[in-house]
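Subject: mismatched residue count in predicted assembly?

I count 756 residues in my input, but I want to confirm that the predicted structure covers every chain. Input:
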Amino acid sequence: MNFDLILRIGAKLVLPFILLFALYVQFHGDYGPGGGFQAGVIAASMVILVSITFGLQNARRIAPQGMVETMVPLGVLIFASVGVAGLAMGKNFLDYSVLSGDPRHGRHLGILLVEAGVFVTVSGTMIALFYAFVERGR
Amino acid sequence: MSAVRTFIEHYNYVITILLMMAGLYIVVARGNMVKKLVGLSIFQTSVYLLYIEPGKILGATAPILDPAFKVYSNPLPHVLILTAIVVGIATVALGLALVVRINEAYGTVEEDEIFERDRDA
Amino acid sequence: MSAVRSQLPILQVLVPLLGAVLVAFLRRGTSAFALTLVVSWILPFVAGAMLLQVLATGPISYALGGWAPPIGIEYRVDVLNAMVLMLVSTVGAVIMPFAYRSVAFELDDSKEAWFYSMYLLCLAGLLGVAVTGDAFNAFVFLEISSLSTYVLIAMGPDRRALLSAFQYLIMGTIGATFYVIGVGFLYVLTGSLNMVDIAARLATVGPDQGQAVLTALAFITVGLSLKLALFPLHAWLPNAYTYAPSWATAFLAATATKVAIYLLVRYYFSIFGVAIDIRSLPIGDFIVGLSIAAMLVASFVAVFETNLKRMLAYSSVAQIGYITLGIGLANQAGLTGGLVHIVNHALMKAALFLAVGAMFYRAYTVELKDLAGIGRKMPLTTAAFTIAGFGLVGTPGTAGFISKWYLAVGALDKGWWLLVFLIVGSSLIALVYVGRVLEVVWLREPSVEIAKVRDPPLSMMAPLIVLTIATIYFGFDTEWTAGVASTAAKSLLGGLR
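Triage response: the counts match. Full output below for your records.
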């Protein structure tokens, strides 16, 4: 039981920082190594840690099954919509320069939005995979 | 001697090829489906190395423009391999999901036992 | 209008991809089917518009994200891939109505929406492989289509579907990894991933790097041969086609291997053929040898199969042999025959698998012995099976005859008399396995169970009839099959060094 206590307190201490680090990796992707994929995996690892230490029920309160299953296509939809925005403005698919008056600023914004989509899909997929495997054999 | 020299100078490619052969061998030789997936994963990882190695330039830095640096490594292999890693993860995850389902349906993940059970059925 | 016209290449991939995402949100079988049907029917018009444009004005180039090739990813459409795009999207659209009842019959309600989502993802992947002009992008699309294919197969009702999906996953991934190793060699050699650019730069690499070029060629050949099930790398195919849901089998048999064949043709004739003297290499003869083995051995195995779906799967391996034979011959008539057989085989095999799917829908079995006399109870379905079956044999008056005619002419142009006899011989074996089925379904007395069945509803009959009519129609009017294939073959061979 004592080990359990250390685990629980330790996890509680670490959890917010995992999410913070995920967000750091997400938004630092423009200037250094990082981006939506890595950040999504880190964010998903937080939910997985919750599930391991506090049980699946608690993890499901943070990330319900329905939400996770929606996140997977939602991220792709965000990605595709950013691309379609280029189409709608008369440029080619995924041409981000139309998103703002200044093409360079537009490209920056486009990558940020696309990375947000990647974040949503990757974290959703990782959590969905974890749930799918954890539930088997129960 | 020159052959040995080439061999040692390209040690990274030697490692890559060893991994490649090891992975492929496991896929072919093992009957356990989880081990097959492990082999497949090693095989794919060796390809990641194959791409990354030529992209690195000794003494070069990450390709983020900065007046302090002159030589940059090639970023394209990394981008390609990030994509390939995603594909690899999807493949292994799907493979493991299939193994779980197969285990539920047959009660084993050994290929020869599965074939036996299908013959009996 | 011109704004839409310039965006056609991306729409080919974007529409099914968005469709797959929206279907994943729906999660209800009927509405998922409706959306899938709409999406499937948009695509042939997109592909058709591109085909007309390409025939009139030459290749279309589309720069993704506005980044000019070779830096950005380029979508490049010429006659060859316009033909493949047209084929894949048309087959997907025509057989879609069949899916409604067939999928509802064979799958749990909860899985239906996922099935359609995976189908659209697979379609996006296949069309993506065909439309892209970027070697690595092709790998990604290849794996998108393959991964969704594994899921489609695993959804089959039998537990052996899981096993065949797993085996296909192992083989398919090895194939894709071999392909990506080959692309890696090309990238290190040329520093480019754009297919046109690779071809141009490959022509200038020094003679001391010839070994590396050949290594790339070998890896890509083996990798794609696994994906397209070239004999003897076809081991995954019979099980996968046998245990997948009937409709998925029809779709995959008609399209999935064809797209891999397209990619192989693209590499041989538009990349390696342009850069090096590919005809001086023994690779053409090697492929001809394997194709002959496929035509004879796989047809022979099909004769002894008792499961209709498995018999047709082995027949697919044999028919792929005809297509690769045309690639190996690499002369005008031979390549035309191979390319036109991509189209003709897709139409005939889709019709055959749909007919078997319809029989399963009514009679709950695809074992030949249990289907005795079904022709009297399901006359339209069995008639469609018969006509498409004769197409498979290559009877004059069907599309299959056209392909074999061109292949035979191609063999004669090379002076290979024996090959003509082998083509005829393997057609005779096909006659045996098709004839064996026809004897059982038409001439035997129906059993008690079979006596109760009747032809399936219109939504299933209509695609079957359309495909059967196409099998006969393209046996007479070859302008849009052999004509287009001949144009494609001419431009491919014209670019060879």
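Helices of chain B lie at 2-9, 11-29, 33-55, 76-106, 111-120. Marking this ticket as 'not a bug'.
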